[in-house]
Write a structure and sequence with these properties.
Elements: E1 6-12, E2 50-56, E3 61-64, E4 67-71, H1 75-86, H2 106-111, E5 116-120, E6 123-126, H3 132-140, H4 198-207, H5 215-223, H6 249-253, H7 265-268, E7 305-311, E8 337-340, E9 372-373, E10 377-379
Parallel strand pairs: 7-9
Antiparallel strand pairs: 1-2, 3-6, 4-5, 6-10, 7-8
């Protein structure tokens, strides 16, 4: 019987323990259980002599060693992103939707994502996005809702709130469609699992003995420690990964003052599918080898965007500690969570691994979309 490879790490004052069901993200800087304002202060770390620790590398994941990296978007890059966003605005009435790109919208969000040094402990993260086949196993075991498996590729391009969906996860068959045979799922077993709410994604990861990655962990896995904006480096390389395109200029020109032809313009401004990269919609995971990151993860730029553990606030990283940051317990009536990575329907500039999805303000607890999936992580102690 083949054994999983073992990764040997030299760490300070740590011991390796297996992941437990319900593994939780590292508390931000050692936050106590009662802290719910997102302003946790870092606790002092042990400085014991380093020693060799053997960490089992599970199938399908990569282990990221503890260390520091720079998280966030430089000011000059942020301005370039804002300029790209403006290409999606209606031609004849851009001011009506200018807030999406400037003050109150993307620019404000980017100001909260300025570069900062972050220290993370050792963690493991999935090499690929969770697939339809992966999720189906959870539903078959009765641990995950089956509703997301009923959505086919023809389903929709915009976000939906499905009637009866459990926004926080739940067991297969309740609530929603009732107990019935678990369907094969949309599109094929190797496609990324989409149309899941944040809660459904977290439910799957906990069933597997892990959790969603924190925003900082996700970015560290995708860009490494050299400050690159893309998993593979500093160049965009549009032909080598699965992304969308800016809305067609002809469609933008149809939108007159006071008249919006698109029934869902806010969603349309996410972008349109683009088959020039070889995939019109979501592709099977790891289809694009050039999209691999510095630690061996696939599709952190494009294919489908991904839920992470952090709750979303417009202020970005403001108030978070520099050690194991994660924003949880924020008082937000909308219950929004962060999405990262860009997707098959979004323009290439949104695939940068150093920034959030600019439409995060819409991603509440019951939001599910054909362009949002997830991957799992676990702490390695």
């Amino acid at each position: 019987m083949a054994r999983a490879p073992v990764l040997v790490l030299l760490v300070a004052g740590a011991t390796a323990t297996p992941a437990r069901a319900g593994d939780t993200p590292p508390r931000p800087g050692g936050a106590e259980a009662g802290e719910r304002d997102g302003q946790a202060r870092p606790a002092p770390r042990s400085r014991k002599a380093g020693r060799v620790v053997r960490v089992e590398r599970r199938r399908g994941e990569v282990v990221i060693p503890a260390g520091a990296f720079t998280m966030g978007v430089a000011a000059e890059d942020a301005e370039e992103v804002v300029g790209q966003c403006e290409l999606s605005l209606p031609v004849d009435n851009p001011a009506r939707y200018d807030w999406l790109c400037r003050e109150g919208g993307l620019r404000q969000q980017l100001e909260g994502m300025r570069p900062r040094e972050v220290q993370l402990g050792t963690f493991a993260i999935d090499r690929t996005e969770v697939t339809v086949e992966d999720y189906r196993a959870c539903a078959q075991a009765g641990a995950c809702p089956i509703d997301p498996l009923f959505a086919g590729d023809e389903r929709h391009l915009a976000g939906v709130v499905a009637p009866g969906r459990a926004a926080t996860g739940g067991r297969a068959g309740a609530p929603g469609r009732g107990a019935q045979a678990v369907p094969a799922g949309p599109g094929g077993p190797d496609l990324p699992m989409v149309n899941v709410t944040w809660g459904e994604a977290q439910t799957y990861c906990r069933w597997r003995g892990g959790r969603l990655p924190t925003e900082a962990e996700w970015e560290r896995a995708g860009r490494g420690t050299d400050g690159r904006p893309w998993p593979w480096g500093g160049a965009l390389r549009e032909a080598d990964w699965n992304h969308g395109k800016v809305r067609d200029p002809a469609l933008r020109a149809l939108e007159r003052v006071g008249q919006v032809n698109s029934p869902n313009l806010d969603e349309d401004m996410l972008g349109h599918p683009d088959g020039s990269d070889g995939a019109m919609f979501a592709a099977p995971v790891a289809t694009f080898p050039w999209g691999q990151g510095p630690h061996g993860t696939f599709d952190q730029a494009g294919n489908v965007a991904e839920w992470v553990a952090d709750e979303w606030v417009a202020e970005g990283y403001t108030g978070l500690p520099a050690v194991d940051p994660v924003r949880q317990g924020v008082v937000d009536a909308a219950g929004r969570h962060v999405v990262r990575g860009g997707s098959w329907r979004q323009p290439p500039y949104l695939g940068r691994v150093d920034m959030r999805d600019p439409w995060n303000l819409a991603y509440g607890p019951a939001y599910a979309a054909a362009y949002i999936g997830f991957r799992c992580a676990r702490s390695v102690r």
